[in-house]
Amino acid sequence: MRKLRKWRDVLIEELTDDHEATIGFLQAVLVDYQIYGDPAALGSALRAVIDAKGGISELAKRTETDPQTLLEVLSCEAAPRVDMLVTILTALGCRLSIESLESEDLRPARVGVDAPVAPPEGIKPDMALATENK
């Protein structure tokens, strides 16, 4: 009979010895965070990677940070500050990088009600419906 495992356990197993998988996973997590802004998902994903790479105590040694501080950062309702995220990623053998959104079809997920809307192609701006009326 096949033994069922939790998804997190399988993820940690995959990330333990595969640095490229870790990089790809973290990139996907950060893109997801940029789109949806869910700090709990970001913290949970970081914690899975940390567990795969030796756990909180090992990360605390590498970053010279108190383990309790790291736990608080990862379980906070807000996303980690950039300086702490950089510290954690560096200890995991990664770094943040910036790339153009034009390289992918990634658009801001949240568009306000009063956001300007361009008229459809072929329609002159003066023929389009008014979008800025209050």
Provide tags for this entry.
134 residues; mainly alpha; 0% strand; globular; disordered C terminus
Shape: globular
Put simply, the count of helices is: 6
Structural class: mainly alpha
- Cα Rg: 20 Å
Order of helices and strands: HHHHHH
Largest sheet descriptor: none
Which parts are unreliable, with pLDDT below 50 for 5 consecutive residues or more? Answer: 125-134
Tally of strands: 0
Q: Average pLDDT, to the nearest integer?
A: 81
N-to-C span: 64 Å
What amount of the residues lies in strands?
Answer: under 5%
Report the helical percentage: 40-55%
Oligomer: single chain
Structure description:
The protein is mostly helical and 134 residues long. Helices cover 51% and strands 0% of the residues. Helix 1 (7-16) crosses helix 3 and helix 2 runs antiparallel to helix 3 (39-52). The model is unreliable at 125-134 (pLDDT under 50).
